[in-house]
Fold these 4 entries.
Entry 1:
Amino acid sequence: MITPYVLKLQCPDRPGVVAKVSTALFECGGNVTEAQQFNDPVTGWFFMRVAFDLARARGTYASLCETIAEVGRSLSLELEWQLYDASVPSGAVILVSKQDHCLRDLLYNASLGDIKLAVKAVVSNHPKGSFLSADESIPFHYLPVTRETKSQQEAQIREIVEETKPELVILARYMQILSNDLSEYLKDRCINIHHSFLPGFKGARPYLQAYERGVKIIGATAHYVTSDLDEGPIIAQDVEHVSHTDTPEELARRGRDIERRVLTRAVKWHTEHRVFVHGNRTVVFA
């Protein structure tokens, strides 16, 4: 069986990067199946994603890595790169509170193979009950939290992450704000979903607030978690037009649908290694 690989790289833009990378993969016996690139005219950085296989491999995996590193040295570039075995599912820990629509959608798509996701654990600050649907084969951790116990509860979350070693932590409508320390620990590997009313409608019952203001568009945003609340690099967004005829309950129902779609889309792109983080922005080769 031929192993598929994905190479991600980013560096200051210079002439010859594409040629060097293509030549390096060819010399290693690589067969390119997909290639995307972006030259950012504002920052002067270059981003590239290449999917390939080694059907005619002429060396080892280690020699391939050395060849890629040599590309950066030959061009005197600050080359940042990662090489992934695309056949291996990304391990994930999912955090959830009472609303489980996003969790359900992730588990369903993972079971179909539409997302290459291996869920290592589900963590909730609420007991597992009829509101929470999770595969019985996936370990479930009930970690209640109060203002006084927040640091201890987050220490338990960190222990689970360190034990399972996931590539990704997903906040699937986890209604707790992560501390700065935990956010920094999970930097670039933790995805959150929220309704796009933020920061316009903060606090409880945002869809009721939206109804009272007569909004005409609702939406959702998936982003990487940072210590700045809901200000992390955006991965995916979507919106839907609504009208004065929609009740708060209907807005909430339609909002849940958008949230699950957007989060699943963001997780899919992340696990397919299509997302580059650069500062507070992302480049997404969807």
Entry 2:
Amino acid sequence: MAERAHAVNGGPRGGEYGRHARALDFQFSRHGTTPVADRLASFTQVRGLVFGQYAEASLDVHALIDLAAHALARKHWRSSGARNEAEARSWWVSICRRRIGVAVARAYARYRIRRMVFIGVPRAVLDDRARRGVAGVAGGADGGHRADVDLRDFYRYQVHVRANAD
């Protein structure tokens, strides 16, 4: 996970964000100008909030949880009935970790369930259908494969997590 989190930034002009910014500049900007990459470089380092398949989290996630818990404890420790700010902070850390962990585990489970339809489908069939822009899943008329799921969704690797979403 640390490797994946580091790949997001990877240096002042490197990493996934830097490559994407340069691609946007190449596609949409005048030749020789890099407004998107320059704007990205004007910010502080991009940090990767990365979760693993067992709901484990990168150090940046834990640091963000600690900062949020500290701010919540400073603001609400008296009204929450805690004896001091440190006690409220420990409670907020546990609550935030639990809520984020459950949301991540649920999102990953949904992600895995959505991909189950591709079990048994040969990779060549998926690649061919993706090239043609045709949907495809296991179990239909064309050699045991049906076409009711958009393959562009299959090739997207990002999972968007929202707390308390059903």
Entry 3:
Amino acid sequence: MECNMVAEYLYEYIYNELNRDTYTAVKEHLESCGKCRTEYDELKQLLIDNANPLHKLKESIEIPDDLACKAKNAVLRRVKTRPFKYLIAACMTIVLLYTAPVFAYYAASIFPFEQYIGFLDKDMVKEFKEGRGQVIGRSSTMSKVTFTVDGMVKTDDKFIVIFTIKVPITDEYNYGMPVGGFDVITVQDQFGKKYRIGSAEGSNERATDEGEFQYMFEIDEPLSFWSYKLNIRLTAIELGHSNPGENKYFAKYKNIYSDWNVSFYINRSLNRR
């Protein structure tokens, strides 16, 4: 079985939805192909392993076996006087017990909006909170510089990628930015298809205290329907010093060249919206 076929079967393989022959063929390929095994491990972590804290939290809340029966009896005892009030109360109790772990888990996994106050506009925040955004939070650190893709939000037919570049603060520099604008950034999917980068902008509000610059750029074309994974690569960063109060850059310190890579799976439902 070829690598491209294995990639198409990974979701079904993880959830054990393949027939016996196909499952065996995929399994044998994964045992002999390091590249596909890495793809499998990353996807399994996203779909299965990252959900373990949710399951553990849910299991830690003990729900009495007779909860439903007690709720039903309580409703029946009051049904003649205030039927709707107690029916709603009982339903709310059951729903809360079963869904509280879910809310607790996802509350810890939301996009760090407080970090981007004054940078993201209200429409973008609204798009994200209404389900057209994806938390990513993946980083790559090389030469003491950290490139982090925080999230991605869909507006119309385009995606906007939100990321930061964080450097250690010295007397000589407190920011890092892509050399030559965004020409040193490439975006491509799992099959190597590259996507154009359109408009881009940055903010230096966190440079002085955090040594961090915030950026966003637009993927200037719709993602292909077959794209389920993106890799964002940055190859050159300009170090320098910035004064947020004057909102301008000072003299450059130097350029550093490396290979910062961040890969992540795309929320499939988001790509279909």
Entry 4:
Amino acid sequence: MKRLAIAVFLFSAALNAQEKAAAPEENMTWKWVNFVILAAGLGYLMWKMLPPFFKSRTAEIQQGIREAQAIKKEADVRAAQMEVRMAALGAEIEKFRTQSNAEMEQESARIGQETARQMARLEQQAQLEIETAAKIARRELQAYAAKLAIDLAEQRVRERLDGAADSVLIDDFVKDLGASRN
């Protein structure tokens, strides 16, 4: 191929040299001969080079089309999968809501039971505190009543005891002590 191109170039150069040396009528003839040789050379080169170029280009385009179709099929498959997921997503959300509501009801029931237990325990504790406070109040009341009774008895004894009765009591007490020592 290169040899042919070199040969055409050399031949064309030789013709150009002859053209310049020839007369003006011959000059026109040589221009036509030169044009025909140039056109034939270019035609040969195009016939030799263009079909493989077009074949390879066609093959590349067809390969690109096949790849694009494969990518499109893959994208369609993924889109279909996404559609299925999206359809299932609504069901999953509803399932989650139902499950959440059930869990909330269970938790509410558990909290209610725990509250009832706490209330019962607090009632028992309050009842015990009330009973304890009542016992303490009774004891204090009994102690107060006893003190009042003692104070009242002391007051009565003082009213009844005068100086003479007091001396008699002290004398009797001293006698009893002396007798118990012997």
